[in-house]
Amino acid sequence: MKITQVDLYQVEIPLIPPIAKYFPKIYDITLCRIQTDEGIEGVGESDFYELTPQMRSLFEEKASSYIGKDPLKIDPFSEPSMFECAFLDIAGQVYGIPIHQFFGKKVRDRVTVSYWSCHMEPFETADEAEVSVGLGFKNHKLKAQSHDIVKTVRMIREKVGSGYNICVDPNTEFNSLDVANRLAGELEPFGIVSVLEDPMLQIAWTGIGV
């Protein structure tokens, strides 16, 4: 088996109007497709949100270096992430095994897909939660800020009820343990917040002065 072509695709997902009001653009993603002379193709995704021109040039050069090589003789774990995934995709098809077997046992049969919102006015986020329920979503990951997250969750709870699950992601904006603990306590009674992601910056453990 030989690699015949490697394509890189830069993809920009159009934003819905409520998000576009705050962000005209969030980021692009880069996908790759590796084709072989036996008709087997592998697909991967870059772990960089957006490639600079210099990075893209390096990845294109890397992609060209694979042409003519046997994908099964390339160590996927030594390659950049998008190519790693594509090589594992090919290997899984050749050997007839799911990709998880390259890492260990399967841990779940299904993966939850969540609706997503940037930080916006609480009533706007509640409206988006109602839209998401209409689309069949039961989970909502939303960017949060400390000054209005409690009001936001309250309005969502009033709008869509208790059968809705929220992941609150403040990207460390809660700033301190005291603030994070206080807000977690205020959010808990609503019964719909199951995840508090990155509420504050972590302090590296050094052992010094302890």
Give a description of the structure.
- The model has no long low-confidence stretch (mean pLDDT 91).
- It is built from six helices and seven strands, in the order βαββααβαβαβαβ.
- The protein has a four-stranded parallel sheet with strand order 4-5-6-7, with helices on one face. A three-stranded antiparallel sheet has the order 1-2-3.
- It is an alpha/beta fold and 210 residues long.
- It folds into two domains: 3-102, Enolase-like, domain 1 (2-Layer Sandwich), CATH 3.30.390; 115-196, TIM Barrel (Alpha-Beta Barrel).
- Helix 4 (122-134) packs parallel to helix 5.
- Helices cover 32% and strands 19% of the residues.
- The chain is elongated, with a radius of gyration of 22 Å.
- The relative contact order is 0.10.
- Strand 4 (115-117), helix 4 and strand 5 form a beta-alpha-beta unit.
- The chain has helices spanning 17-20, 53-65, 81-95, 122-134, 149-160, 177-187, and strands at 3-11, 29-36, 41-45, 115-117, 139-143, 165-169, 193-196.
